[in-house]
């Protein structure tokens, strides 16, 4: 038995639907704890775009027991860390602390989660903070281009919405609308408490029951509909940047589709690392980019695959041509056996190395339980990658790189009347 793959995971569901999952790792001196709620930007009504992310901010702004400074200080003064993040399908509030401070961390997290004040004056101040965050993001084209890509690919679908919202929607968020969204979306049936480190499952269940067990047993239902690629092949924005930042890709597999494993292998070979085909051909051999890579992303009812990078305006068309050449090579010749074996080994290494971090373990358990309703054992995940064959790679490549229409988005210093290549 490979003991590096052992995960001693325990699960409990409280009477009101809150799920608790943990792994006891006795040889460390810390623990990572997260409260996950299955609510993200895709669940927002049109006028409230960005409200999930805004609520994430507001939960740090004070409760009847703690002001904003005390929320941070109670964890940080003990050497711990407090953080949160919002995605298109979930929100997480997390703490990393010494094992002796697990109860304190749960007290702070659940106090924020349940008792935040949403003071109107604080809300107006925090709107300005988020608006500055949006402007900062707009000034970072290498990050913004990914949102532009998804918005173009998934036009008219909730997955196309940016997590952060827009300047207009955030500026017009109303106090009662934010409170209503928080109260009706943060429901026990959507909540997972996950932890990993030097704590016991019994301890975590007792703390969760004491602090969240009296919430009424309610759960929400997400509207799922598989997104279709928009058919819009490109979108360009004029920016006075030194480079053109681009994404080129198409729709792909959801979290429920087994072929996501084969696509992950394919992406690894194409642009997953410095030894990948695209990196070697476009950067190392020709020196046309500083960075070029590929990745896939999965959601409950859809997903995508894309290649992204940055290059000078003068070399932009050539870089796109070279990407298409690599796509054609995959379609016509497949990948080599050495590439398949190496990709499997790299995937296994990354997953096992991730087990060294208590936070990575905690995120894996919380996110997986929300997405699949169960924890997929690491051994099962690795077995899925081992089951990827050349035939499956060829089928996935045909479906993703040939059958689906490509979407190209770019941000750069394009001439006013330029049309895409």
How many domains would you count in the coordinates? 2
CATH 4th-level superfamily of the largest domain: Metalloenzyme, LuxS/M16 peptidase-like
Strand order of the largest sheet: 1-2-6-3-5-4
Looking at CATH, which topology of the largest domain would you report? Answer: Cytochrome Bc1 Complex, Chain A, domain 1
- Estimated radius of gyration: 23 Å
- Total helical segments: 15
Strand/helix succession: EEEHHEEHHHHHEHEEHHEEHHHHHE
Poorly predicted sequence stretches spanning 5 or more consecutive residues: none
Form type: globular
Q: Kindly state the mean pLDDT as a whole number?
A: 94
Give the secondary structure arrangement, pairings included:
Blueprint: E1 9-13, E2 19-24, E3 30-37, H1 51-58, H2 68-76, E4 81-86, E5 91-98, H3 102-115, H4 120-138, H5 141-153, H6 167-171, H7 175-185, E6 191-197, H8 201-212, E7 234-238, E8 244-251, H9 260-271, H10 277-285, E9 292-298, E10 303-311, H11 316-333, H12 337-354, H13 358-372, H14 378-386, H15 390-403, E11 407-412
Please give a structural write-up.
The chain has two domains: 3-212, 2-Layer Sandwich (Cytochrome Bc1 Complex, Chain A, domain 1), CATH 3.30.830; 234-412, Cytochrome Bc1 Complex, Chain A, domain 1 (2-Layer Sandwich), CATH 3.30.830. Helices cover 44% and strands 18% of the residues. The strands form two sheets. Strands 1-2-6-3-5-4 form a six-stranded mixed sheet, with helices on both faces. β9 and β10 (303-311) form a beta hairpin. The longest helix is centred in the N-terminal third of the chain and has 19 residues, at 120-138. The chain has helices at residues 51-58, 68-76, 102-115, 120-138, 141-153, 167-171, 175-185, 201-212, 260-271, 277-285, 316-333, 337-354, 358-372, 378-386, 390-403, and strands at residues 9-13, 19-24, 30-37, 81-86, 91-98, 191-197, 234-238, 244-251, 292-298, 303-311, 407-412. The chain is of the alpha+beta class and 421 residues long. The mean pLDDT is 94.
């Amino acid at each position: 038995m490979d003991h590096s793959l052992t995960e001693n995971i325990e699960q409990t569901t409280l009477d009101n639907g809150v799920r608790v999952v943990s792994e006891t790792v006795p040889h460390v001196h810390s623990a990572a704890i997260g409260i996950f709620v299955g609510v993200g930007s895709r669940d927002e009504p049109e006028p409230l775009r960005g409200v999930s992310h805004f609520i994430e901010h507001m939960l740090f702004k004070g409760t009847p027991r703690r002001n904003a400074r005390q929320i941070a200080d109670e964890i940080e003064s003990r050497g711990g860390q407090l953080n949160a993040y919002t995605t298109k399908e979930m929100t997480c509030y997390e703490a990393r602390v010494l094992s002796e401070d697990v109860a304190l961390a749960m007290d702070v997290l659940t106090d924020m989660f349940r008792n935040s004040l949403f003071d109107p004056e604080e809300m107006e101040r925090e709107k300005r903070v988020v608006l500055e965050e949006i402007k900062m993001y707009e000034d970072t084209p290498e990050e913004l281009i990914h949102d532009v890509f998804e918005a173009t690919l998934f036009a008219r679908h909730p997955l196309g919405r940016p997590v952060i919202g827009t300047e207009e929607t955030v500026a017009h968020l109303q106090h009662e609308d934010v409170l209503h969204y928080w109260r009706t979306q943060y429901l026990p049936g959507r909540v997972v408490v996950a932890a990993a480190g030097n704590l016991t499952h019994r301890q975590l269940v007792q703390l969760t029951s004491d602090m969240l067990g009296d919430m009424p047993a309610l759960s929400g239902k997400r509207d799922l509909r598989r997104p279709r690629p928009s058919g819009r092949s490109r979108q360009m924005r004029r920016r006075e940047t030194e480079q053109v930042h681009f994404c080129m890709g198409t729709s792909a597999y959801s979290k429920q589709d087994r072929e996501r494993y084969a696509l992950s292998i394919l992406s690894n070979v194409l642009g997953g690392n410095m030894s990948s085909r695209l990196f070697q051909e476009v950067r190392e051999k020709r020196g046309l980019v500083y960075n070029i890579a590929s990745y896939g992303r999965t959601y409950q009812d859809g997903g995508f695959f894309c290649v992204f990078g940055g290059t000078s305006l003068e070399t932009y068309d050539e870089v796109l041509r070279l990407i298409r050449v690599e796509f054609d090579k995959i379609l016509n010749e497949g990948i080599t056996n050495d590439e398949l074996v190496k990709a499997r080994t790299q995937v296994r290494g990354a997953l096992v190395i991730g087990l060294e971090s208590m936070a990575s373990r905690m995120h894996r358990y919380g996110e997986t339980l929300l997405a699949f309703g169960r924890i997929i054992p690491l051994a099962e995940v690795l077995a899925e990658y081992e089951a990827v064959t050349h035939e499956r790679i060829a089928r996935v490549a045909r479906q993703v790189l040939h059958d689906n229409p490509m979407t190209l988005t770019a941000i750069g210093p394009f001439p006013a009347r330029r049309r895409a290549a």
